[in-house]
Amino acid sequence: MPSSYQAPSRKDKQQATTHSQSSSTNTTKETATVGKILASKGNDLFALRPQNTLHEAVEMLRDKRIGALVVKNSEGGLQGILSERDIVRKLAETPGQTLAQKVEDVMTTNVEVCHPDDALITVLRKMTEGRFRHMPVIDDGNLVGIVTIGDVVNYRLNELEYEALQLKQLIVG
């Protein structure tokens, strides 16, 4: 037997292991909120006044590539929302006479709003049940942004991708 040979000991079976994940880090879930969407997408908010025409609204929707505009009163408070759907309904009711009409005559005035700390699942349910796709965000009485159903779905898809990656890492190690 060579002189450098040493018989195996208990210490040899103890391997250095790393723990980048644990069951608690893989199962702990922060509640997804409206504020997280606004933080990632920004607070861009496109607004009109009630006295603007639908022609001006249509141009803004086209130029900004969005589906709805908030309508603010003279103090900057939320007075309504004007969506593509509102405009299409009015087009059907008054063909050829629609674009000259005022925003205040077409906008939705009973607006559902949310807050930055609202859970996304709650907002998604409200949107689905109310059959609308845009929701203004109010914080301390001030209009701070707007979330769309697309924002919520995209955020959730990214979460699902991340969860799938975590599961793969947990299984593979």
From TrEMBL:
Which PANTHER family does UniProt cross-reference here?
CBS DOMAIN-CONTAINING PROTEIN, CBS DOMAIN-CONTAINING PROTEIN CBSX3, MITOCHONDRIAL
Keyword list (alphabetical) reads:
CBS domain
Q: Output this protein's name.
A: CBS domain-containing protein
Name the InterPro entries for this protein.
CBS_dom, CBS_dom_sf, CBSX3_CBS_dom, Diverse_CBS-Domain
Domain named CBS is located at 39-98, 107-163
Renumbered to this chain, the Low complexity biased-composition regions fall at 15-28
Q: Where is this region: Disordered?
A: 1-31
Give the species.
Answer: Roseibium porphyridii
Q: Which Pfam families match?
A: CBS
In which domain of life is the source organism classified? Bacteria
